[in-house]
Amino acid sequence: MDLSDVSEELALIEGQINDIFRALSNGFQKLEKIKDPNRRSRQLEELTDKMRECKRLIKEFERALKEEESQNTHNTNRMLNETKQSMIKELNSFVALKKQHASENKRIDLFDGPGGGDVFAEENVQLASSMTNEQLIDSGHRMMDETDQAIERSKQVVEDTINVGAETAAALKAQTEQMSRIVNELDSIHFSMKRASQLVKELGRQVATDRCIMAMLFLIVIGVVAIIIVKLVNPNNKDIADIPGLPPPASRKLL
């Protein structure tokens, strides 16, 4: 391509892409000579990073091409589009080569999409500038379907979140009521313990009073018993009055 017909930005990007293609070519030649599986895996990872960078540059090339499309001639735009498609095909060839080596090395191909196709497979990465109206419409319909599905999933997530929030609120309310009942029960227990303490004090005072009365009665009984004993031992002792219930002394019996 005649670089004099394109801008410096496009020429710079194309030069960077060509440098990466040369590095990829040399890297795959070097990979064929490596026997150690670990070294082969590291080499494949490095080549994969270079292919990702190349893919980014091709998209940058397309962006710059669209910006300058109105300024270029028809032939220049056609030549630039052909250059872009050529770069995509060359990158796809390196991707296929990388898949082959990855399969031989029994490594999972992380660079491929979930469907296992090429990174720049025609149905997945066909650029908008090269699509027909029908393809653009189909692509738009797919994007709308995916958007609708994403919205439905978002609605489901919101609904689940609301349900979880309601359940959490109900649980918190039940726990609050339970805590309130526990506080009321603790107040009742505290009052009962206070009342019991008062009763214990009153009972202690009553027991102390009963003991004093019993002690006085015991002293009275001891006194009476002592008087009885002395009277029986010395019946002539006039200092001791007659005790009710005992017979009088013999000298005082009626004639």
From TrEMBL:
Residues 44-78 form a coiled coil. Keywords: Coiled coil, Membrane, Protein transport, Transmembrane, Transmembrane helix, Transport. Residues 141-203 form the T-SNARE coiled-coil homology domain. It comes from the Eukaryota. The chain crosses the membrane at residues 213-233. It is found in: Membrane. One of its GO terms (cellular component) is endoplasmic reticulum membrane. GO terms for biological process: protein transport; vesicle fusion. The keyword Transport applies. One of its GO terms (molecular function) is SNAP receptor activity. Pfam families: Sec20 (PF03908). It is a single-pass type IV membrane protein. Belongs to the novel plant SNARE family. This is t-SNARE coiled-coil homology domain-containing protein.
